[in-house]
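Changelog-adjacent note: as of this version, every example in the card shows the full chain rather than a window. The one below runs 205 residues end to end.
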Amino acid sequence: QHVNPGYQSAHVLTLDFDMAEPKYRDSNVRIQFEEQVLNQVRALPNVESAGFTGDLPLTSKGWTEEVTPEDSPAWRETPATVLYGVITPGYLEALRVPLIRGRFFDNRDRDDAPLAVIVNQKAAEDFWPRQNPIGKRLKLGNLASDHPWLEVVGVTGAVKHAGLNEPSREAVYRPYLQAKTSLQWQRFLVVRALGDPMQVLPQLR
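Full-length structure tokens:
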């Protein structure tokens, strides 16, 4: 009752999309579908914000990946295992995850733009203690991996993911248009309503 999960669930609806049909195995088809849904949902009256994510907090243990932060004293040899989320613009805003530094993802974070990443405060403090994390870089895998460097554009508060009693963990978010090869599909739609979210449910369906 008293633990802050790191987000606000009041006035929020979530919808789970089952994209098991073969056509959705094509990432471009999925993206086209998701963008069409988002454009229509955001245009509805009484919808404040909306976004897709591949993994909702407090519904699983969380998706993890290994990352190597650049110029980090603690992770020069061994990658860090972090919570990993592939999201669309609007997801963090819909859950009102606090923005501490920098910015959220937006329309500039497309597949032809510089590769961006958002980290939570725990990751920022652990990877680059007493430094400004904006503009720092990290990559998936170890230092020798072929994965490209990703530039930190924002820092958020920590979200409880596996349970309310879990300690804070490092977390990394990537924009979905720049993570097409990820196995994590954006199957959950999160919608924040201005009033009673059940009033917008028929239109969402």
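Structural remarks: The CA atoms of residues 193 and 199 lie 9 Å apart.
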